[in-house]
Design brief:
Elements lengths: L18 E9 L4 H11 L3 E10 L4 E9 L14 H22 L2 E6 L4 E7 L4 H11 L5 E8 L5 H6 L4 E3 L7 H14 L4 E4 L8 H6 L4 E5 L11 H8 L3 E8 L9 E8 L6 H24 L3 E4 L2 E4 L2
Helix pairs in contact: 1-2, 3-8
Length: 313
């Protein structure tokens, strides 16, 4: 909790219901930060965090601003903004910012921090990644609502039941792939899912599926991409005699294991390590990179452009 340096008193944390996050992506030009800050200031917003990045080669500008609504005009309640008032504040800001965004050719996204993203997790037989995500979610580390777990195997069913999460068993074969995917998409739509997490789901999604969730499907791949794409990367790494293994979390695109990379981790190995050793050590890396990617997405810290990402602190 932040401390007032002058008085030594503890400042209360701004409630999530009163915080908002603004993400901006636009052509770089002078005065962008000033224009955004002045608009926020004019509406009484209190900026909590602000970060920007310029891609000088492409001439592109990126910005993330987290701000508090409680200090806006007409906010007199000692307990902060009511939900109705907070929605009104966001609506007013969005209307005014849209005018500025159009002038400066901005792509922008605006979120209320308290809104919990609805998540579906897909997995197959390996449970280390999904077990980690469920633990982090239940402990409050991941600000989301996991509404369903979908698998083409039944190994995760008991784990889903333990956490009180709906489980759907949808087997997939080459002959039933289209039917299975149609059922998956229908289920996701009915549950209003906003983010799909592939926690070692060993099936390739079709272009139709990917197109329904642009920059909203996160996968974990058990290698340091772009090395060793596809299946059995630990076996390929061992055969190649590499000295580092890694894991990668990325957004899913129609190109296999080629989407915008969000996070990566590596571990050093040696000639003494066998394939089984690489798999065991790699599982820790997989847990780490997937949970980070999911958390950063939920906290609205990622912007995609081209086949790259900007990940704000």
């Amino acid at each position: 909790m932040p401390q007032n340096q002058q008085t030594g008193t503890i400042k209360p944390r701004v409630p999530d219901t009163e915080r908002a996050v603004l993400l901006i992506d636009c052509p770089d030009q002078k005065g962008l930060v000033a224009r955004v800050v002045v608009l926020l200031y004019s509406q009484g917003a209190n900026i909590l965090h602000a970060e920007q990045h310029q891609d000088h080669e492409l001439g592109q500008f990126f910005m993330r601003v987290e701000w508090a609504q409680a200090s806006l005009p007409n906010s007199t309640s000692p307990t902060g903004l009511s939900d109705t008032r907070a929605k009104s504040v966001i609506s007013t800001f969005a209307r005014d910012f849209a005018i500025l965004a159009e002038e400066l050719h901005m792509r922008w996204q605006l979120y209320r921090a308290h809104q919990r993203t609805r998540v579906a997790i897909f997995c197959s037989q390996y449970l280390h990644c999904i077990a980690d995500l469920l633990h982090r979610s239940s402990s409050g580390e991941l600000p989301c609502e996991i509404v369903v777990i979908i698998s083409n195997h039944r190994e995760v069913e008991k784990l889903a039941a333990f956490h009180g999460i709906r489980f759907e068993y949808i087997p997939v074969t080459p002959a039933t792939r289209a039917e299975a995917e149609a059922k998956q998409l229908e289920l996701l739509e009915s549950l209003k899912v906003e983010l799909v997490v592939l926690a070692r789901y060993m099936q390739i999604l079709t272009e139709t599926f990917v197109a329904r969730y642009p920059a909203a499907i996160i996968n974990v791949h058990h290698s340091f991409l772009p090395a060793f794409i596809g299946a059995r990367p630990y076996h390929a790494a061992h055969a190649r005699g590499v000295k580092l293994i890694g894991a990668t979390s990325h957004y899913v695109t129609t190109e296999l294991d080629d989407g915008p990379i969000i996070e990566q981790e590596v571990a050093r190995i040696s000639h003494r390590d066998q394939v089984e050793d690489l798999i065991a050590r790699g599982r820790d890396l997989e847990r780490i990179v997937l949970s980070r990617a999911v958390r950063w997405h939920l906290e609205h810290r990622i912007l995609c452009y081209g086949n790259k990402t900007v990940v704000f602190d």
